[in-house]
Design a protein that fits this description.
Layout lengths: L9 E4 L8 H4 L1 H9 L3 E6 L12 E6 L3 H18 L6 H10 L2 H33 L6 H4 L4 E3 L4 H11 L8 E3 L8 H11 L3
Parallel strand pairs: 1-2
Antiparallel strand pairs: 2-3, 4-5
This protein binds pyridoxal-5'-phosphate (PLP).
The site of pyridoxal-5'-phosphate has 5 residues, from loops.
């Protein structure tokens, strides 16, 4: 459909490395980029390099030919100039330093693997505790999903009660950051969700 309707996809890659590995997690983006003449790909290193507030990322613009690519670059530079003029540099310098050094890159990939494994384990633990607390398999999807976030699927009122009564925080649409789950708090979180999930 993208090629038939001559659409230019804008792809967002913000959690590369959090599902399987860096390479496998880019498969979807690669698949789309290979099918279309032009694409925009936004890459964020906020999560996978742990540089959340340093504004580190990249915009990859694929042009149909060199002239189109040059034109796109000039548009992007103009947009950047009108938005922030000078981008913050220090986080990007950290990323560049790591990527230019094979030893540091290897350490980063290893640490990313540790983060991925830990989140997967905590997902499993929370799902298990939720089964215990609710007596149902409603939240089993937490175990099978990947990455840092899951949408619990509870109401905004339940989210409010979880915050006010249990001090558990998530966005109003019940999107929860699973990186905050640890062995010592999984059962507390599960019991709180079980107590507030309805209504
Ligand atoms: C899906 C998705 N894309 C992009 C971003 C933005 O990342 P950045 O911190 O680089 O602005 C986020 C941040 O939470 C995200 O969840």
């Amino acid at each position: 459909m993208l090629t038939r309707r001559r659409l230019v996809p804008f792809l967002d890659l913000a959690y590369q490395g959090f599902a399987v590995d860096l390479d496998a997690d880019a498969a979807g983006v690669r698949l789309v980029a290979e099918q279309v003449p032009e694409a925009l790909i936004a890459i964020s290193f906020s999560k996978n390099l742990g540089l959340y507030r340093e504004r580190v990322g990249a915009l990859i613009v694929i042009g149909e030919n060199e002239t189109r690519a040059d034109a796109m670059q000039s548009h992007v530079l103009q947009i950047a100039r009108s938005i922030y003029s000078m981008p913050p540099d220090h986080g990007a310098a950290i990323a560049a330093h790591i990527f230019a050094n094979p030893t540091l890159t290897g350490e980063w990939i290893e640490e990313l693997g540790l983060m991925r494994t830990r989140i997967a384990e905590m997902r499993g633990l929370l799902a298990q505790q939720l089964r215990k607390a609710t007596g149902a398999a409603t939240f089993d999807f937490i175990r099978t999903q990947h990455g840092m976030f899951s949408l619990l699927g509870v109401s905004a009122q339940a989210v409010e009660r979880l915050r006010d009564k249990h001090h558990i925080y998530m966005t109003a649409d019940s999107r929860m950051n699973l990186a905050g789950i640890m062995p010592h708090n999984a059962s507390y979180v599960a019991e709180s969700i079980a107590a507030e999930r309805l209504g």
